[in-house]
Amino acid sequence: MQYALHRRPEHLDKFIAVLYRPGKRNPNPESADWNGDVRVPFNEHRLEFRTRLLSGVHNDLEKLAVLTWYRGCRARLAVEFPDVFAEAEETTAGPQKAPQWERVLRKLSGGAFGPVQQTAAQPLRLILADMQDAAVDFQRLKSQNPS
């Protein structure tokens, strides 16, 4: 999340635009393709438009409240999946870099989760559980074969 690294208001506006998307027309939990999300799917090509649209709607306190809520949710996921969200060591070389989630998505796609588009549509906890399992397996193999 760019806002955490640079504290620029436009990054917070973009983050808000990612989270707050329009609702689907007539969402139906009984439908075979229901995924639990009442929002329209994320579309990176509409992000700049949505960012401009929402930038003046919420005041700064509301935006910071959303950010605080998100950080709480992320902290909970870090507890549930500790090896996925292992804290990076802080360096004196500069600010901590954001995870390369696009790279992670590409690495996970093609296998159990299908192509990139299908992988991107999977429930977050399913993806994180798979990543947690892989991290645990890696640590186990690493401890069995120290170099």
Automatic annotation (TrEMBL):
Top-level lineage group: Bacteria
Protein name: Uncharacterized protein
